[in-house]
Amino acid sequence: MDGKTANADPQLQQFIEIESQKQRFQQLVHQMTEICWENCMDKPGPKLDSRTETCFVNCVERFIDTSQFILNRLEQTQRSRGSFSESMAD
Asked: Helices 50-89 and 3-40 sit at what angle, rounded to 10 degrees?
């Protein structure tokens, strides 16, 4: 490998990671929109009434809370597996 290829790899990996994060975010937004629309929107109209608006706000907040909880849980699981694997290697 020449120096240029070695230097390009981290940049390419970073680009791929950023694009993957964008895609995951878009999927979450789409999923959240679908769930909240189904739960909150009775009859589409020209304006949201206060009940529907409150429902959307609560739905989005709960969706974000749940997503954050799941991410934190996955990180904890990965950390505990990593420390378990490291202790097994000793």
From this structure: 140
